[in-house]
Amino acid sequence: MSIFGHFIESFFYSSGDSGILLGYWTPIYGIGTVIILLINKWVSKFKTNKWIKILLLFVLSAIILALIESLGGYLIKWIFDKELWDYSNHKFNIGNYTSLEMSLIWGLSSLLLIYFIKTLIDKFINKIPKFLTYILSFLFIIDCIATIFIKVL
């Protein structure tokens, strides 16, 4: 999902600077996806109405992902001395790095991920060769190390 997130940001925001890493992925989207899946797993354990579960997934994802987005913004500023996004011009901003508008987008995105994208991906995920997973993981680790040496040290 981090590569997909990088693609979407590059498409909609032509700056091409979607993330902190040198490679073509934005880890925050991968982290966000894992968090949404964990929230969904937790919410699905409740014995309650389907609509309550959908509402819980939406609200929890909106809040938690907004907190992560804000934390990520501050960490990137602190470590890399860079601002990749700034929501201070949003009407309902919560600091520079998140806003009510973005929280609602994260909540809606979580529903889209769980109820539409995940069902498509689940059909194909087991068909991905393990060696491809290993190669991508290796490249990601190399990119993280290279980023630290080039951008931080």
- Annotation, overall tally of beta strands: 0
Let me know the largest β-sheet.
Answer: none
> Termini separation (Å)?
28 Å
As a percent range, the share of helical residues equals: over 70%
- How many domain regions? 1
- Morphology: flat
Describe the protein.
The structure is a single chain. This protein has 153 residues and is mainly α. It has one domain (2-152). The chain has 5 helices and no strands. The two termini are 28 Å apart.
Provide a concise account of the structure shown.
With 153 residues, the chain is an all-alpha fold.
List the keywords.
153 residues; mainly alpha; 5 helices; flat
Topology:
Layout: H1 2-12, H2 27-44, H3 50-80, H4 100-124, H5 130-152
Helix pairs in contact: 1-2, 2-3, 3-4
